[in-house]
Design brief:
- The complex is a heterodimer of chains A (234) and B (238).
- Helices cover 80% and strands 0% of the residues of chain A.
- With 234 residues, chain A is mostly helical.
- Chain A has one domain: MetI-like fold, CATH 1.10.3720.
- The longest helix of chain A is centred in the middle third of the chain and has 37 residues.
- Chain B has a domain of 145 residues: 3-Layer(aba) Sandwich (Rossmann fold).
- In chain B, the strands form 2 sheets. A 6-stranded mixed beta sheet of chain B has the order 5-6-7-3-8-9, sandwiched between helices.
- The chains are: A mainly alpha (234), B alpha/beta (238).
- Chains A and B meet through helix 5 and helix 6 of A and strand 5 and helix 3 of B.
- The complex binds adenosine-5'-diphosphate and magnesium ion.
- The site of adenosine-5'-diphosphate has 11 residues of chain B, from strand 2 and helix 1.
């Protein structure tokens, strides 16, 4: 209990002192996961809609694979990306290992299945509602996908936020491919792991509380934005 | 020069699902004018017939031919379903959806859409979410959305099932206007009053087959088959 209290105090001190290191790693966390989220959404959301509107061979298999990949252990993703990006690996020439880009790549791989799976579940229900109508109107496949993405946007936002949550709190993969290098690839979660390793539980906990606050703030901000949009449109 | 869609002719047209015949074989010719009402007991194949003629179900045999190219015909048809389907958008966005699908400019579509919202009594509700409308309002919305493209033919599958009298009356008035303005209507109904009010021609279905056809006066005043007589008398026909 004492340590939790110390952690809260540490979090307060970090915030009040406007610790520049804290600011830097918090921003890097947001940046890495934010970019990963955008890239992952651009891949996962159209995929989710395509899986809903189009019957093709291997469709069920694709959905099953996505569902399975949702539980992909980040550490394993990190290892695989590490091997691919390491100097002797197939993409070694790009020199991306131990850069934020490598961390983004790993996070994209981790959250695409999650967003696609959760997104597909809600779009599948929406498609069941819309199917007859959109067929009777002779819509093209592209129009069907766009219609589902637009009308399902609130459910998809929730899927995206779930992806953000998984990304911002993830440590296994980015530790391996980023290396937790100070001022280069250190983010909130890897800093917490480092301080814990050093035995500074209060600082680790403090960082942890700041991370939680950060995640909540992003969620609230996005929900607030979607609420005001609803207020205007409806 | 716009080529007419009609006559619509079917020859031995049939739809089967998992071995069961949903409808057919059907040999029909629909001419270019008026309101054709499809009647028959539950499960007789009314929905299946409409969907087959419209091209929503794959034929298991026979043919359905419009007077023009089938793809061209598809663009000039509209369908209203028994359970109204509304998009999760505002009333106005629902109404203009088919115009946007065919690439009409947004401003033009919005202007036309507002007109139609007013015509169906939702002129004050254009910005409301369509999902919170009453069932009758949803069906009027579906009708406006179907008519806004001025289709040559409109198919309706029991559009007034489970609607109250006033909503039914409003929908029939809209249908009458559309028909007067030249839209060909093909309407399935189990409401004999509605059939009598709207029909120019009748198709009576029984057990997945066309049992009797005729002009409305001839059919209602002197049905030729015993089953049609019994059905009109309100007896249970299967
Ligand atoms: N998707 C389907 N699969 C199998 N059988 C169906 C399907 N849809 C309808 N049927 C059957 O086909 C017959 C005709 O149904 P339907 O066209 O819905 O009749 P109606 O609209 O006159 O009530 C019924 O026996 C019904 O049970
Ligand atoms: Mg039916």
């Amino acid at each position: 209990m004492l340590e939790l209290w110390d952690g809260l105090l540490a979090a307060g001190r970090l915030l009040i002192s406007f610790d520049p290191d804290l600011l830097e790693i918090a921003l890097r966390s947001l940046q890495v996961t934010g970019v990963a989220l955008i890239v992952a959404s651009l891949i996962a959301l159209p995929l989710a809609a395509l899986l809903a509107v189009r019957r093709f061979r291997l469709r069920r298999a694709t959905i099953a694979v996505l569902n399975a990949l949702m539980g992909l252990p980040p550490v394993v993703v990190g290892l695989v990306v590490y091997v691919i990006l390491s100097r002797s690996g197939p993409l070694g020439v790009l020199g991306l290992l131990f850069t934020p880009t490598a961390m983004i790549i790993a996070q994209v791989i981790i959250i695409v299945p999650l967003i696609a799976s959760v997104g597909h579940q809600s779009l599948r229900d929406l498609w069941a509602e819309y199917h007859d109508l959109l067929l009777s109107m002779n819509t093209t496949q592209r129009q069907r996908i766009m219609t589902l993405l637009w009308d399902g946007r609130r459910a998809l936002l929730t899927a995206a936020l779930a992806g953000f949550g998984r990304g911002i709190g993830e440590v296994g993969a980015i530790m391996i491919v980023g290396g937790n290098i100070d001022h280069v690839t250190r983010v909130m979660t890897t800093a917490i792991a480092l301080e814990t390793g050093k035995g500074d539980f209060a600082l680790a906990l403090g960082l942890g509380f700041v991370l939680i606050a950060l995640a909540i703030m992003v969620n609230l901000a996005i929900h607030w934005l979607s609420q005001t949009e609803r207020g205007r449109r409806w | 020069m716009v080529v007419s869609l009609f006559p619509l002719t079917t020859q031995g047209a049939m739809v089967r699902r998992r071995g069961n015949v949903l409808i057919g074989p059907v040999d029909l010719t629909l001419s270019g004018q008026g309101v054709t009402v499809v009647i028959g007991p539950n499960g007789a194949g009314k929905s299946s017939l409409l969907q087959m003629l419209y091209g929503l179900s794959r034929l298991s045999g026979g043919s359905v031919n419009w007077a023009c190219d089938a793809r061209e015909a598809q663009r000039r048809l509209a369908f209203v379903f028994q359970t109204p389907v509304v998009l999760r958008r505002s009333v106005l966005e629902n109404v203009i959806y088919p115009l946007r699908i065919v690439g009409r400019p947004r401003e033009e579509a919005l202007a036309l859409g507002r007109e139609w919202c007013t015509r169906i009594g939702l002129g004050e509700a254009t910005d409301r979410s369509a999902t919170v409308l009453s069932r009758g309002e949803k069906q009027k919305l579906a009708l406006a959305r179907a008519l806004i493209t001025r289709p040559d033919a409109l198919f309706l599958d029991e559009p007034c099932a489970s609607l109250d009298g006033s909503a039914t009356r409003e929908i029939e008035a809209l249908l009458q206007t559309a028909s007067d303005e030249g839209t060909r209507l093909i309407l399935a109904t189990h409401d004999m009053g509605q059939a009598r009010r709207l029909a120019n021609d009748v198709i009576f279905l029984l057990r997945s087959k066309v049992h009797e056809t005729g002009t409305a006066p001839a059919f209602f005043d002197g049905p030729r088959t015993a089953q049609a007589r019994a059905f009109l008398a309100g007896d249970i026909v299967e």
